[in-house]
Amino acid sequence: MEAYLTQLESIIQHAAAGSPEASQQLDVERSRSNCWNEACFELLRRRGWGTAAAQHDAITFYALTSLQRSSLFRSEGPSDNNWFNLRAQLRTLILATIAHVPALQSMPSFVATKVAVLLALLVREDYPTTWSSPFQDMSNSLSIQLGTNVTADTIHANNLGISMYLRFLDAISDEIVYPSTDADQDERSSAPMSAATAQHISHRRESVKDVLRGFLINQGNNELVQASKPLEQTDAAQIMGSLFQAISSNLDEANAEKLETAGRAAMTLTRYLSWVDIQLATNESLIKCLLFCLGLAAPGNVRTDGANDDDDAIDDEDDDTKPGTTLSVECANCLREIVTRGMDEKKKEELLINLGVIDALCSLTGLTGDRVQLDITNSGRTQIDAVIAAAELINAIGLEVLTCWEIDCAQKGSPSQAIMLFVTQSLELTLTCLNYDDVDVSGAVVEIISRVLVSVEKHQAYWNNIYGSNGETFCNKLIQRLLTILHERMKYPADFEFDYEDDIEAEEEMYRTQLRKLYQRIVRFKHQLVLEFMRQCFSALPQSLAAAATQDVEVALRFVHHYGEGRRPAPGANSALKDPPFREIIMALHLSNVSSHPHREVLLLYYDLSVRYAKILKEMPDLLSNLMGALSGSQGLQHSHPRVRSRCCYLLLRMVKSAGGKAMRSYVEVVVQGIQGLLFPSEETTVLPIEPNDALYLFETTGILLGSTGLDDDLQQRCATGVLTPHVQSIEQILQSPDLHRDVDTYAEQLAMSISAIAQLSKGWQGHPPPGVQNVLSASTDISLKVLLALSASPIVRNRTAVLLQRMILSLGQGILPKIPDFFQALLSNCTLEDDVLDISQLFNQLCIKFKENAVPAIDSSLLPFLQKVLALQLSETSVVPSGNSVAPPPHVVTEQLSVRKQAFSTLQHIATHNASAVLYSENNVGSIADILRLMNDGATVVPEPVMKKTCTMFFGELARAWAQEGCPAPVHVRNGFFDFIYEVFVPGMLHCVLDSSFNVKDANQYRVLAEFGVVLWLLKRSYRGNAEFNSRMTELVRSGKLNLTGSAANACLDLIANGFQNASSEKEMDLCLKAWKEGKVQ
Predict the structure, then answer these.
(1) What span, in angstroms and rounded, lies between the C-alpha atoms of 949 and 594?
(2) Mind listing the pLDDT tens digit for each residue in 158-178?
(3) C-alpha angle with apex 103: 98 to 106, nearest 5 degrees?
(4) Which stretches make up the Exportin-1/Importin-beta-like domain (predicted)?
């Protein structure tokens, strides 16, 4: 045995060092050993744990972990006695080991934690039946002394014992009170856990918690019995008492080790306060201790800057959190757990009164006392962690107090005197925290501030009647104070770089987003007060806004910018401009020199709010002069910072759209020439670069200025030519580059952007552009075709070309049709991606919708190649619905296949719907019409997706509608072949599909399929081939039994079904007949 253990130790050490072979060997040993638990016991005994050398810690940890995951803690129930003795031995071994101070001193943290977990599992399995006093036994083994008996010589040893005891209590919480899924996963890792074991473990956890709280277990039926002993004698009371003693006996501010122990105990206490009896959680001595500890937070490291004796600055290097601060934080968390305990309103009110937490906080923070122990007013005076925890506590208390206040008002008409005082105190604490110069502190109370605003808005009369004084309403005073705080807190720090990818600055931005939401709520509630405050803010700024401090002018502009978000009714910007004071502020801004401010974010904020409130510019075009000059100059499109240039390209477009053509008319020529100079600068000028994506905004802006401002046709043509001529020349130069095909990706990106620019420019003519402009756009389209032919292998070029064609269909009208075949040929030559299929399908659809039968010549030669590409993109050896000889593809492949095939279905359905069906029997395509019909029939009857089934069924319905009438231009043999196909293939397939048990007629999408099939049947009945053929064929099909029906449909009377189809006099009756057959109601 000794040799085996030595070998096992060696294997464990190698596995801990990262040897996969050793780990594999351990798994083998564990699986084949019948005495694995005994071996682990021996490993623990022979090394003595903590007294062993450090290299044996891995052995100890592995042995403990193996025992944790073994069947030792997986008994099936109380009748299973196999493991009782082993657990008793393990308990004795652990308690004996931790009783030795040297063992605790040398025991690594990870081993100590694992020991605590095993002890908790022993409690779970054996308490209280075979281990009746685990907490007393732990205390005795560790020789913990609480109170005044601890001497200076024994402080360290005593704290080691307390630390181990706290680990044990933490493990009890993790394994029994609030077990995580990870805990069960660890237990299952060695072998699957049976359902009986899982149920037993769950039952044991609940039983242990109940026994801890004083209930007894009936040994006969294992059921709980009502508690029979006083609360103070329960084990839960013992736990709470020991935690209280661990805190209170270590409150020595001069001894860091003792304060650390107290903080550690308070952290553990937090985990128990939420489930122990409320009387234990609110013990008077415990509460006093927690409140006292709130004031033990260490002061922050504050220095006075000699350059400004009035300001305090926090030292650049954050101090480590002191033990007293940690204790204060944990005690605040404890109090928060108590305050937020669930209970009815009356008990919660009594709890808040009895705790005295609000009075204590007011005293500690100096709001009602002379001594400040927890400074929530002056940044840096108290270590920040403690201030944050205090703010979170204040937020929690405020929410509870406000709830009580609202319930009292609703039930009694007015709150009690105590709650009235609590509201006043908690609100003062909250506002003080909100004004604190730290995002974590201020942000911690945003929730309660938001709730107060909701309550004040909803119960304004209550608030004013209860708290109003001296003729001034409480609500107005509160709003004015909040606005003052928000004005200060919404300011960005002086060193803020507006780098939103930086984590710290992103946190600052998220905090200010919360503050803006508060501001918007205030605007909705009291917009008159906001306007007055806004006026005061601007009055405090210097007359020259360009010289104002960045923080001050930026926050003032923020108030203006977000004012419209709070005004009602929507849209808020329009409602805001109905307020005369606000209109005056906007007008004053446009007449000021704020656009000359040196900070880029001030400029962008001004431009943003100008766009948001552009309605005033539409009404007063004279205000545009300064704004347009700034936007297009060195403070905008030619600003030194690339972010400003980029943003201004977009904002200029928004401005032109929002201000409208009438307001922009006088600026068209100047702006267009300026944009042209930026896009195509001459060699003599120095122009800062515009990124290609941003240049697209400028092209669209140019198009809108030319097409929507009422310019005469000649001027539109001349300006469009001036913009597009150098653009086309640059494209031609790139096409002539000898490196074009050697660096396809680079040149394809450039040329794709050039094609996009033409498409963006054409957006300006929403209607039919003048003939001269059409000629310019047509010439630009021709150069785009050259690009496509040169780089048709580039996906981005194909995509941008398709987008351009969609624009040209609108801009050029039928003038684009002669060009379409060449574009289609080039696009289809490299149609290799699903995106290509989508782009081409959309072009087909748009052409059919726009030009109907006139689109036939343009799409005739491309339809079959397109359908062939669709089929070629699908896997050759798979199908969406596998047959006996095909391979079922994985689900993601089925999804991709259906997505591709859907485009073919959609295109053919648009052809049929928009009177372009002549393309199906053209000279190019008539030979393949049968294949097309089979493709659509498969979509209607085989493809499982109901929307696609409906699309394909509609295709047959639309063709039947067009070709069923006398005088149809389609050749007779084509029409006859089509109707024969419907009778012989489509109708039987659809009947089998609709009547199959898998078809759910109650599903809306699937019912649409049935309804569209009813349309087809009705059109067949009314076709030129006559009602008699329909009746004959349907009767034969219904009565033949070839449909192989199952379910309810198989029980229907077929004669009655056949008669129903014969007698149907509308599409609706066809639907009802199919539905009745489907549900077997015709019997």
Answers:
(1) 61
(2) 888 999 999 999 999 999 998
(3) 135
(4) 108-189
